[in-house]
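Dear colleagues,

For the upcoming journal club I promised to circulate an example of a predicted protein-ligand complex. I picked one with zinc ion because it came up in last month's discussion. The inputs are reproduced below in full, followed by the predicted structure.
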Amino acid sequence: MNRRALIKGALGGVLGLTLPPLARSAFSQGSPAVVPVSDGFVMLTGAGGNVLVRTASTGQVLVDSGAAAFTDKVLADLRGLPGGGRATTVFNTHWHKEQVGGNLTFGRAEATIIAHEKTRAHLATDYYLHDEDRYEKALPKEARPTVTFFTGDQTLAGKERIEYGYLLEAHTDGDIYVFFRDANVLAAGDAISPLKDPMLDWFGGGWLGGRADSQEKLLKLTDAKTRIVPSYGPVVGRAELQAEFDMTRTLFDRMLDLVRKGMSAQDMLDAGLMKDLNRTFHDPYRFTYDAHKGFWAHHNSLAPNVL
Ligand SMILES: [Zn+2]
């Protein structure tokens, strides 16, 4: 029996569900779905951001809680899985609304919410959304992370080792990975972007250099069999992560050169910033503008001639 048949058999048998044969095809249809990831792991799509679930009769572990508008759907999906919707632990990969919208529900049910300290701090106060020119309200106390860290830590769920660590400025200032080492399943949050254009929340602390370093860090955690779960898009493997890192690194090197020449985002595009990359961007200007903004926030650490 091949791996896919094994997963389908195991999950379908337990759940009585007909699961899509391929995560990628399920996602591309844009329909909400419970997508198999690995033995004992599923991904809920169609909830704003992806929600990774480790199922177990003793309780479920979630990575991200989806957008608030989808909490009822997430709960309904969780109730149909082993563990019956009792989430003992919820990780937040970062503080964007599509990742923390279910926190209030799970926090009230006394789940432990684990995140980077910067994510907790962000959610504990009103914060400015540059794109929308308004303040987002702080989350109620019960919805905020209860366990935080700075560099990394680990915990156990049954016998499963869960390691988690900081991804410095990959997308915001509070990004983390969550690595289920024994199962070889890695939640990478928005530090990778296999489907959408990579997004750099430059006002929230993300920048291209942080993204390149973070993807390199993720590569070191993985092997050829690792299942990697992003905030958006399908589950990917190490080859896709390597390809995205190569692209990020190329863009960083090119942008460092071009920013030294004093170029604007549009100048950079005109000068061939995106030439011969291994993917096509939906909105090259938006990405370049955000990356360029992020560079200026870091000009003092780039080179003496960038000012
Ligand atoms: Zn995000």
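Two points we might discuss: Residues 94, 96, 171, 190, 231 surround zinc ion (CB under 6 Å). The mean pLDDT is 90.

See you all on Thursday,
B. R.
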